[in-house]
Design a protein that fits this description.
The chain is α+β, with helices and mostly antiparallel strands and 244 residues long. The protein has 2 domains: 95 residues, Pseudouridine synthase (2-Layer Sandwich); 147 residues, Pseudouridine synthase (2-Layer Sandwich). It is 16% helix and 33% strand. It is built from 4 helices and 12 strands. The strands form 2 sheets. Strands 1, 2, 5, 6, 7, 8, 9, 10, 11 and 12 form a 10-stranded mixed β-sheet that branches. Strand 3 and strand 4 form a beta hairpin. The two termini are 34 Å apart.
Length: 244
């Protein structure tokens, strides 16, 4: 399995996760995961982190995993190599001092150049499971905040439909937060079969057009670092089409 390493020291491992790879086992299927890849390279990570209990009651180990990306999301993710680093990083995520920036291609052209989505997220009874956004104070109080900004507006050359490339900066870390929030302002992510169900996949995408572009935080050694994951091939192709 070829996973690009963006940074590494004695405490952490920062990689560019490819789309299609799960971060850790879901307790239902047997398939490669980022956690298993890391453990094979660094056996000493075996007891680092916290296990997860699946809906079926299975205890799933998550060696080194501090935060998650969806299976279909590509981009930067950091893993802890030891217990001290795990606790140090986890505290930053819990206190929301980690800065995260995503890139996404969305349907339509937002009227404004930038905005803030402040809407609670709650689980919807559905198969597969999904989430929805409600106005603040009306949901189950899973507060979620996302800042967004338009990078480029254009059209899909094949259909003539409006599309945009945006930057999204989640200030909280809720499940499917960016996908749910962008749907709530009527600009869902292109090719997102869950939150843009039934819509055609523009710009050649075969998966939700979401990429974890930048992660900024303090390392256990005290150094503040910015990590960027280069845009994957499908994003580069889409950007070229948008500029054509």
């Amino acid at each position: 399995m070829d996973i690009p390493i963006l940074y590494e020291d004695e405490d952490v491992l920062v990689v560019n996760k490819p789309a299609g790879l799960i971060v850790h086992s879901d307790g239902r299927t047997i398939e490669p995961s980022l956690a298993e890849w890391a453990l094979a390279r660094y056996p000493e990570m075996n007891n680092v982190g916290e296990a997860w209990t699946s809906p079926q009651g299975e205890i799933v180990p998550r060696p080194g995993i501090v935060h998650r990306l969806d299976r279909t999301t590509s981009g930067v993710i950091i893993l802890a190599k030891n217990a001290r680093a795990f606790s140090f990083l986890k505290e930053q995520f819990q206190k929301r001092t980690v800065l995260k920036e995503y890139r996404a291609f969305v349907y339509g052209n937002p009227k404004e150049d930038r905005g803030v989505i402040d809407a609670e997220i709650e689980r919807v009874r559905s198969t597969p499971p999904r989430w929805s956004a409600r106005m603040k104070g009306q949901g189950t109080r899973r507060t979620a905040l996302t800042e967004w900004e338009v990078i480029r507006r254009g059209i899909d050359p094949k259909t003539g439909e409006k599309v945009s490339l945006i930057s999204a900066r989640p200030k909280t870390g809720r499940t499917h937060q960016i996908r749910v929030h962008l749907q709530s302002i009527n600009h869902p992510i292109i090719c997102d079969s869950l939150y843009a169900k039934g819509r055609a996949c523009f710009l050649g995408f075969m998966r939700p057009a979401l990429h974890a572009f930048r992660l900024s935080l303090t390392l256990p050694n005290g150094e503040k670092k910015d990590f960027e994951a280069p845009l994957p091939e499908d994003f580069l192709r889409a950007g070229a089409l948008l500029s054509a």
